[in-house]
Amino acid sequence: MAAPTSPSPAADPQALNRHLAAQLRALRCARNWSLDRAASETGVSKAMLGQIERGESSPTVATLWKIASGLQCPLSAFLVAPPTQSDAALFRSADALREKPASDDMLVAPLFPYEPRFAFEWLELTLLPGYVRHSEAHAAGVTEHVLLISGSMEVLVDGDWLLLREGEAVRFAGDRAHGYRNLGATAAVCHNLIHYAGEVASLSPVLDRGRHESEGG
């Protein structure tokens, strides 16, 4: 029997803020970083990081991605707890998971959050018309795969914007600057599989601890 979809903190804004606060605090403390150091590494202000850790702020997807890149951890760590490890089939619904954190023109559904044994996260991204995102380089060895499901979009790879049409896909090194944009009049929906290598796997106990803190364990 298929395992049910794991509950998403994003279904409750307050639960999401608690989850974000616990994850950020756990990851920062694991690196023995002060808020000043975390601000320097992520490009997000000390004041904003402090607000997130206190559960007082709902950051945009763009801000979360900057934090994840600076901490060299998966984006999904901030959106949803990983599924309980099991070999059973796992059913996920993008409609149930899709969220639009804060005032952002990208919607994210963490279809399969990062798990160390698989070393990837699988996201559904919806880029609303006019959305442009220049992404920071991820940790060394990260590889991204983008498959366009509907609409049209462009991906910035090695300094050039590559047009994707429905059914087309691209794989590229995520440890370099890259980007996504939708210059069309309708939303673009894509699947983004991000494969991580190296250091992020060692953070799994930290991510688990952050999850337990956010759940009040």
TrEMBL record:
PROSITE patterns: HTH_CROC1. InterPro entries: Cro/C1-type_HTH, Cupin_2, Lambda_DNA-bd_dom_sf, RmlC-like_jellyroll, RmlC_Cupin_sf, TransReg_Diox_bact_type. One of its GO terms (cellular component) is cytosol. Keywords: DNA-binding, Transcription, Transcription regulation. One of its GO terms (molecular function) is DNA binding. It comes from the Bacteria. The keyword Amino-acid biosynthesis does not apply. SUPFAM superfamilies: lambda repressor-like DNA-binding domains (SSF47413), RmlC-like cupins (SSF51182). Residues 24-78 form the HTH cro/C1-type domain. Pfam families: Cupin_2, HTH_3. This is Transcriptional regulator with XRE-family HTH domain. It comes from Rhodocyclus tenuis (Rhodospirillum tenue).
